[in-house]
DNA sequence: ACATGATAATTGTCGGACAATCCGACAATC
DNA sequence: GATTGTCGGATTGTCCGACAATTATCATGT
């Protein structure tokens, strides 16, 4: 009979208004927003209210301040930040290693296949350099893991699919700590990872989609085995 | 010799501090936070600063107010909200239909397979009811599409994998508008969707993982064909 | 054209204020 | 007994005004 009234606080309605303008492309990436005082004047609210609304947009990644400056710019949400939010969400939802692994097994072969199909020369070169770096040097675990993470991110970029790039990120972030432990405890882990990376890069260079996906599958399965052999149950909650 | 000082604004350090406590499980879901005045006192900052920090946590979904109340409670980020943020991010990254479809093709068969393996009786019943609802009634496009969305969400839940649940959400949200148009323009769309849902439910009931994945693959491929037949190029930017 | 320094604008933070609303307890009513 | 009214206190949403620190702007001299 009656519809609920819109009693949303002003700061929410304000951020919703600006958000709509950004998503509706009226404000494009790189455009700068008016100053807080000016926004307060235009929306006829207090500057404190404006600031609360801006914090909202800021943590959604829709606006940002560049390099310590004062001006606010419209921005597309950074992949790293979005991934971190997702990682937090998954942590609080108590995702287990088995869950993340299952997602990796579904996603990464497809990413590798897409990369094999669509990578350009520069992206291939980046992958080759990362694989070479990992394979040739005996870095400390933390740095080695960072390289593996970079390899996966580079794969995402090479896939040319922003959905893959975004989906990749939280999984990589969640997996990195476990991987560090595995590399520390299992002497053969480095060799196996290096081998898989080399094989994937070769398949991607040859534009061999099935090969890239296959090697990725083995790589991900190896990862699960490593996790178990390092003494962790698959039910371990990540994060 | 000297470490860089932490010059981040107070409201950021404050939200980081609370965030860390939540992620570190010192504050569990459902716990209530002190009042703003009390937080201001404890952190020795002004209440306005506290409020900016809280807006930050609020939009990350780490705290919420329940049902128009005043108390703040620690919460795990709601799937819908996280998905919406991701949808926005993908929209601003100009993901094309082809990209979303590629991700669906990688993800959904795995979700269906996991659901076939792990679903319990109640989850199966929910899927059956949704499929039955969709197949038996000739609802207007918007409601029909909502039912399809519910079917995918229920699949995610039945998969027992929070990663799948979360990854599902933005894809479903992005796809729903396109699907509404397809259903409107292609007379055979309803029948094909109903058929696929029935087949998937049957496979999931029989715990036939390969069958479920297979039917899902056909279903997703059908969806792409429908999109093209409805007159859209795959490069259409979603959102 | 380019560095430089003065000047104006802007942000981050603060203190205080007040109405609206929610909460809990208690009383009144059906 | 359950719903409804009432009342004081606590809390939030919003406003105002202020100020130091930092950044942007611009005229100026080289």
How many runs of DSSP E, i.e. beta strands of chain A? 2
**How far do the termini of chain A sit from each other?**
47 Å
Number of helices of chain A: 10
User: pLDDT under 50 segments of chain A (min length 5)?
Assistant: none
Shape summary of chain A: elongated
The residue fraction in helices of chain A comes out at over 70%
Question: How much of the residues of chain A is beta strand, in percent?
Answer: under 5%
Q: Name the biggest interface.
A: A-B, 50 and 50 residues
Structural class of chain A: mainly alpha
Radius of gyration of chain A: 22 Å
- Averaging pLDDT over every residue of chain A, what do you get? 94
Question: What is the oligomeric state here?
Answer: homodimer
Give an account of the 3D structure.
2 copies of one chain form a homodimer. Helix content of chain A is 70%, strand content 3%. Chain A has helices at residues 10-23, 36-43, 47-59, 79-92, 97-118, 121-136, 141-159, 162-185, 189-205, 209-229, and strands at 63-65, 72-74. A two-stranded antiparallel sheet of chain A has the order 1-2. In chain A, a hairpin with a 6-residue loop joins strand 1 and strand 2. The longest helix of chain A has 24 residues, at 162-185. Chain A is elongated and about 65 Å long. The model of chain A has no long low-confidence stretch (mean pLDDT 94). The interface between A and B is large, with 50 and 50 residues.
């Amino acid at each position: 009979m009656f519809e609920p009234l819109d009693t949303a606080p002003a700061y929410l309605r304000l951020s919703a208004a600006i958000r709509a303008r950004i998503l509706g492309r009226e404000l494009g990436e790189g455009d700068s927003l008016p100053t807080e005082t000016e926004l307060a004047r235009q929306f006829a609210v207090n500057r404190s209210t404006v600031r609360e609304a801006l914090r909202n947009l800021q943590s959604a990644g829709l606006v940002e301040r560049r390099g310590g400056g004062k001006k606010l710019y419209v921005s597309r949400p950074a992949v790293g930040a979005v991934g971190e939010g997702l990682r937090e969400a998954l942590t609080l939802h108590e995702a287990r290693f088995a869950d993340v692994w299952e997602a990796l097994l579904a996603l990464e072969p497809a990413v590798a296949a897409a990369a094999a199909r669509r990578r350009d020369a520069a992206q291939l070169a980046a992958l080759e350099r990362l694989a070479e770096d990992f394979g040739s040097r005996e870095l400390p675990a933390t740095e080695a893991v960072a390289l593996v993470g970079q390899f996966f991110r580079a794969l995402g970029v090479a896939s040319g699919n922003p959905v893959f790039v975004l989906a990749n990120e939280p999984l990589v972030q969640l997996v990195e700590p476990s991987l560090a432990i595995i590399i520390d405890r299992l002497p053969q882990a480095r060799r196996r990872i290096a081998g898989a990376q080399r094989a994937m890069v070769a398949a991607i260079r040859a534009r061999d989609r099935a090969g890239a996906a296959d090697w990725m599958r083995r790589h991900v399965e190896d990862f699960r085995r490593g996790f178990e052999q390092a003494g962790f149950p698959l039910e371990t909650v990540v994060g």
